[in-house]
Design a protein that fits this description.
- The protein has helices at 11-22, 24-31, 59-63, 81-90, 100-117, 134-140, 155-167, 171-180, 189-192, 195-209, 228-236, 299-315; strands at 2-7, 35-41, 55-56, 68-73, 94-97, 121-122, 146-152, 211-212, 219-220, 239-249, 255-265, 277-284, 288-295, 327-328.
- The protein has 346 residues and is an alpha/beta fold.
- It folds into two domains: 2-132 and 299-326, NAD(P)-binding Rossmann-like Domain (Rossmann fold); 141-295 and 329-333, Dihydrodipicolinate Reductase, domain 2, CATH 3.30.360.
- It has a six-stranded parallel β-sheet with strand order 3-2-1-4-5-6, sandwiched between helices.
- Helix 1 packs across helix 12 (299-315), helix 4 (81-90) runs parallel beside helix 5 and helix 7 (155-167) packs across helix 8 (171-180).
- The longest helix is centred in the first third of the chain and has 18 residues, at 100-117.
- The model has no long low-confidence stretch (mean pLDDT 94).
- Bound molecules: L-homoserine.
- L-homoserine binds at residues 129, 154-156, 183-185, 191, 196, 296-297.
Amino acid sequence: MTDIALLGFGTVGSGVAEVIDDRREYIKKRLGDEVRVKYILDLRDFPGSRYESRIVHDYGIILNDPDVRVVAEMMGGVHPAADFSRAALEAGKSVVTSNKAVVADCGAELLELARKRGVRYLFEASVGGGIPVVRPMTDDLAENEITKISGILNGTTNFILSKMESEGASFPDALAEAQRLGYAEADPTADVEGYDAARKILILAALAWGKLFPLEAVETLGIRSLTRADVEAAASEGYRVKLVATAEKLANGKIALSVSPRRVPSGTVLASTDGVFNAVRITGSVTGDVLFYGRGAGKLPTAGAVVSDIIDALERKSFAPPALFWGKGTASDVSSAGDLYLSVLD
Ligand code: HSE
């Protein structure tokens, strides 16, 4: 029996428990051992839930249990999630996470700590929800010099834009529905203002170029001021309005990072990415353009990505590809992306 612990039993955390249960036989066959969720850390008690007996409120129980090999963190927010992740790595446990805020803020430090301790720090679910993009960038595209990344990385804003366009919904009504369906964060500010997408493009840029930049390095414009008239005007000219995150390595070696509403030519995969779906286009020197498309948010897709990391962490216990060692991106590495508001994405 291999024991793991979950931190956070909200939408994603409960999804992880479900996926592990549903895929129990396959995981057992693949790893040669059964994976058991031994503890679930949450402030709540979940009376009547089948997982009730595994709920703990004291993180020390998990940290001090040598049988717990992997800690899956799905708490959201930087603190205490980052501190809990640091403590688990220090204790020699691998950590997997769906928490883009922690990865974007502390990823470099946590990866270095994982390397020192000979364990893993994995974050497939932190970008693109259920879309495999972190592992493909780390492994399958490793032979490429990446020149550009363009992505629709926020399901909430994409859902809102799709509703505004197809149903003529107002911004507040579309946002309320996104929240009702569980796509938006409890506080949707980060989604709507573009910071969620900015954190995700920072993670992809770090995977591409080995430097983790601060949030301020991304020129970030959200969708709050967009009107239906903007969306309709773009449609009449053959474009669809999307919140697009870009990261580009310029000829002078500097990196330009942006999040902005853009006009995307109709008929392209990015323009056809609707609702909660995300899409990422990665341009590599060897492979050319590669597109990743799928569900960027939601309980089971995101949980599935977390479980894929749990399997990976248990399979390749102390392997950490060099592409995952990140330095600190500084102002001198960055170039302005320019004014991209409603400009055409090429
Ligand atoms: N709020 C995020 C989104 C959740 O809408 O994409 C997934 O990261």
